[in-house]
Amino acid sequence: MDATEALRRAARRWPEREALRDGDRSVGFAELDARANRLAHALMRAGVGPGDRVATFLPNSIAHVAAQQAILRAGAVWVGINRRLAPPEVAFMLEHAAVRVVLADADGLGTARPAEGVAVWDVSGADAARERRFAGAPAAAPRSPAAEHDVARLRYTSGTTGRPKAAVLTHGCALASLRNLLAELHELSPSDTVAHVAPLTHASEALLAPAFWRGARSILCHDFRPDALRELMAHERVTTLFLVPTMIAALVDSLPGESLANLRTIVYGAAPMSEDLMLRALDALGPVLLQIYGLSECPFPITTLRKEDHLDPLRRGSCGLPTAQNDVLVLDAGGAPLAPGEVGTIAVRGPQLMREYWCDPEATAAALVDGWLRTGDLGRFDEAGFLTLVDRSDDVIITGGFNVYPREVEVVLEAHPAVAEAAVVGIPHERWGRSVAAWVVRRPCAEVDEHELIDFCRAQLAGYKKPLRVTFVEALPKSSTGKLLRRALRTDAAAFRSAR
After folding, report:
1. For 438-477, what is each residue's pLDDT tens digit?
2. Residue ranges with strand state E in 148-243
């Protein structure tokens, strides 16, 4: 098998069943499979072969899914580029990966301008060039499935700590992720509808293969608008979707009181969820939350916090238990495993793990040690084996010789009824080396000032952990995948204009 086996299986078992819906367009499993095969043949006729990098620069769409599948079936390596990225970011990825062909749509052609000699194809329209490429391309599979050790994807990190790196992921990585997801999404069946709101270049894409494997249909959304999503979920009877916590907050705030009767599972990840939001979501939506922890270097799920565990006050602050195919440890600075309750670096080993960082042996050697990925995340286990994320190791604030984990301060700030979101970073301090500073987004119509929040933290945290400065902003800086960009706060604090 290779990473496209789920669609091949669905095309055999449910050829006429609707696979994807994109607005008023839809396609069945057999037709989607045939589209992917025809595009794969077209790529191969253009000289694309095993190991060549081919990028997609497409919105969530039928064309995107067919292109992704086609790249892999041609034996090439998929480079998925988020449409929200700016032209310099796109250019960096195309050059860094030495991309040979870019598959785009008409709107993306102006942004995806690679170096000379790189072809850009419009695969979404009905232009003459596209028709010529597909002329005579057969609907049958173009080649035998790739081996599990063959490279399937270059997945770029979010770049929250600097220039993004590209994790080299094999077909075996994708299949291991599918097996783990099928175990966690055991309720998924042909009667389900999965909505894809987040970009298919990132976490939401991982739900495509389980949906194909189980014969569920998928609804592709081009953007996130809470009211539109709520209406879509009710009209299409959506049962399953992936959201980041900020999307969950907006969805919950948009609910006018009625329940979403068909909703069974919201998979979430990419950022921590405050306890206040978790409780509001459980109250509004019921026990539907399934947290998944993963990384670009080891796609999810590494651990999962299942629905029933969200109802346990002692466990819902964690990211759950390791999945069946992954080993997880918490290590001290010397690489020795730590006892439950002690904070250290999270390390993971398993078949989902990347092979290396693309063209970066130094970063690879630092991240992969004796077959274990040193994630850069800090965490601790409890006695029952539940893993709690504490922070990123490179985000720790050392103030006066004491370690402060930004997330523990943010949790306290977000517990204040006037605070919607908070971000904490270290800033220079003449006496202590670093001190704690917070950027806060107020809830609509809420009033709170800097001194009130500092006093609120002082009552719940050690004195050295409380913020010395609080800046109120309209929004926190985030990556295209919804992750907080602490480096933007650290390096360009003046750009965040006070909203006080």
Report:
1. 999 999 999 999 999 999 998 888 788 899 999 999 999 8
2. 151-156, 166-170, 193-196, 217-220, 240-243
> Residue-wise over 187-220: b if at least 16 C-beta within 10 A, else e?
ebeeebbbbbbbbbbbbbbbbbbbbbbbbbbbbb
Residue 301: asked if its preceding bond is cis (omega within 30°), the reply is: yes
pLDDT at position 499 is: 33
Domain that holds residue 446: 396-495
Count of structural domains within the chain = 3
What backbone phi and psi angles, to 5 degrees, belong to 150?
A: -75, 150
The pLDDT tens digits of the residues spanning 180-190 come to 999 999 999 99
SS (H, E, C) 291-304: EEEEECCEEEEEEE
Same domain, 400 and 376: no
Assign residue 448 the CATH number of its domain: 3.30.300.30
**Model pTM greater than 0.90?**
no
Q: What b/e readout covers 363-374, taking b as 16+ CB neighbours within 10 angstroms?
A: ebeebbeeebbb
Q: How many helices (H) does the chain have, and how many strands (E)? A: 14, 26
Containing H/E element for 252?
helix 245-254
Residue found under tokens 């449409």: 83
Q: Which of 84-93, 152-161, 340-349 has the least mean pLDDT?
A: 152-161
Are 152 and 251 in a shared domain? no
Please list, in sequence order, all residues whose beta carbon lies within 8 angstroms of the beta carbon of residue 90, skipping any fewer than 6 positions away.
57, 81, 111, 112
Q: Read off φ and ψ for residue 327, nearest 5 degrees.
A: -100, 135
- Give the β-pairing of 469-472 and 433-442: parallel
Residue indicated by tokens 């796109």? 90
pLDDT at 488: 80
**Angle CA 267–272–275, to nearest 5:** 95
Distance CA 289, CA 307 (A): 5
Paired residues of 102 in beta bridges:
55, 120
Are 358 and 458 in a shared domain? no
Instruction: List the structure tokens of 91.
Output: 């250019």
| 16 and 160 assigned to the same domain | yes
